[in-house]
Amino acid sequence: MHVEFAIVGGGIVGLGAALALLEQGVRSLVVLEAEDKIAAHQTGHNSGVIHAGVYYRPGSLKAKLCAEGRAALYAFCEMEGIAHERCGKLIVATNEAEQARLAALADRARANGLTPKALTAGELRDHEPHVAGVAGLWIAETGIVDYGAVAAAYARRVQAAGGELRTGWRLASVRRQPARLTLISTQEEAITCDHLITCAGLQADRVAQRCGVAPGVRIVPFRGEYYELAPAARFLVRNLIYPTPNPNFPFLGVHYTRKIDGSIEAGPNAVLAFRREGYRKFNFSVRDAFDIFSYGGFWRLARRYWPTGVGEFYRSFSKHAFWRALRTLTPELELQHLQPAGAGVRAQALAPDGQLVDDFHIVQAYRMTHVLNAPSPAATASLSIGKQIARLAREA
Predict the structure, then answer these.
(1) DSSP state at residue 236
(2) Which single residue of 184, 194, 293, 382 has CA 20 to 30 Å from 117?
């Protein structure tokens, strides 16, 4: 089998790239997914937020693609009849220090083309009657959707446009040849292509290495664990409630997310996972753990964030600690209101100097385009990221 483009990775980014290529006139394309279904990992475990782009550095690829992708995603959902809602979110400051950071966040939101609304303590309750805080920021552009449904719609469109989708196809190696590449699966099936795109998420660095490309980063998995509000407690949250982010920690902190089915998620924390697809607390892989602890970049990161990391692990094993963190936002929350829910694993690219790669990171080689870091808002921006990947691949 020969195709113009082969895409390794059937998550929402890989499918977005496939859709963009077909819309640009590519005649033959195949999406190769290692699992037995599409959207099995980060896409399928996504919290479902359509991000507005509040937190991203103005001018960054994340800020640009989030703005473009958000608008395109809302339009796509309307066209496909996918349930979604532009419900808005509330960012809450619970003390004076956070209030000062909230003002800076409002400036960044405006620089990213948003229309944040500053709220007083009294005005907070107009949006969320059960929230507590000294000030807030209302972001009207934020929404919710089921990204599994979005990915399924992308897949239908890809196949309708003549693209092929194969599941259970795991890349083992790549042979470079004049004017083409030969991809070999673990079952020794060969596919040739003019250009290869990899969007492999939690395995992104390893897939690049199998292709003979030095990724320059290491994927370190962080598990985000969730609780769910019992149905009797859902009245406490109308839409989305976030804390003011701590600049000393690279993640946003536990928050509330109303999902499109009406349930309310609480979380996530952010704990180091000892298996790349480690959705349970005690999942462990010798290989994955070795990759983490043998990497100098991890130890440089750990020296900066170990106190916070210890706190996240404590919260992972203590429902009471999780509850206390959430009560800073909603004091009426009772311990029995929290029910265990699912978890997701974030594929975080880590540089050798210990810096978390914050922006999208794409590397090109001979007839190849490798997406090595696609953190949030990758799902929100999947259509715009797809166009960016398609452009880079076609120009290579």
Answers:
(1) G
(2) 382
